[in-house]
Amino acid sequence: MTFIRSIVTMILTWEARLILKKYTPFIVAVTGSVGKTTTKDAIYTVLSKDRDTRKSDKSLNSELGIPLTIIGAESGWWNPISWLTIMWKGLLLIILPTRYPEVLVLEVGADHPGDVRRAAVWLKPHIAVITGIPEIPAHVEFFDSPDAVVKEKKELALHVRSGGSVILNGDDERTRAMHSEFRATAVRYGLTAGNEFTASHESVVYQQDAPRGMRFRVDHSGSSVPITIMGALGRTHILPSLAACAVADAMGIDLVAAGGALLSHEPGPGRMRVIEGLGGSTIIDDTYNASPAAVAAALQTLHELETGGRKIALLGDMLELGKYSNAAHDAVGAQASGIVSELVTVGTEAARIAESARNAGLNPDRIVEYKRGESLAAGEACAKQIREGDVILVKGSQGIRMERAVKALMAEPHRAKELLVRQSDEWLALP
Fold it and tell me: What pTM did the predictor assign?
């Protein structure tokens, strides 16, 4: 199976390279260890307002996913006929004249050393965006150290074509340090002073006493535009908006136009999305994936909310952390202990979250633990205890399938395919 995948990847990459050579689209490539997909989506919202733009679907960011985006196809999963059809589609794009997007917004991930570099050397983006590399990055398991992850992510910026731009998260220590290496072309964004694109006047939008969205302003070179994003919470959506405005500026789109486009931005499923829960409760669905920095940010958002009910966290394993896993889960438990009224954990690694929270002073009677594979059971049990005004944060790595818990908590579970991640027939068929 690995051999066949390698052959398919090689063929599709060859086709993708020829397609780029033929149609010469403007390429914006996004990498980092946190917030890639959210940033890619915000950039797409801004650029697609006036330009024919295509983005990576969901998080197709691997050595196979990037060619699929360039060809304009979805994964063939386990169907060989589907893969042959995709190859044929790529070949037709090469041979026949056809309309092709003016701009590609591509997400570039790295699970192993060399992943970013292999993509960057042939993508040669016009703009590279690096979203941030926390102290314990996601997918660090197969790297020697966090510094090795930094080096890998930086490859995208090193391969920006002449005259291009590098957009960096200036709030992140590791990406901020790259600024001196790309001084002529680098622009920083973030919530702190010293960045070229910053945010101010941040506030939560409440409707009927429940959090439903947020407002803030994007500030740049003396200009300031208001942004309202409904249906999502947290600075994990403010930072991508700033990155999108920085990309727009690099492409000659003014701040007012970029800010206006963001007013129509709809955050993706599973990324701090606000969903109406049972019995007048509110769910914060952050189940797309989980890393230490992202979980910390989600818990901080929960901490800052005003609510008349309880603050509850359903937290699953954070996977692919290797030797950093124990310390990372311990830190989450310690943070959660000072924020939540109730804590529910799912998974082997997440058991350390529960233990750490108990050690930090959270009442053991307020902690419930479930094994890996029991995310649905955790959600169903929690659903029986929900009260009006409760806010429930649900988060965990993709493999823990915490979206199943969200569905059990939803006031309108029939809308799961519309609102939740991993609702395709292929995902639903998995155990």
Answer: 0.91
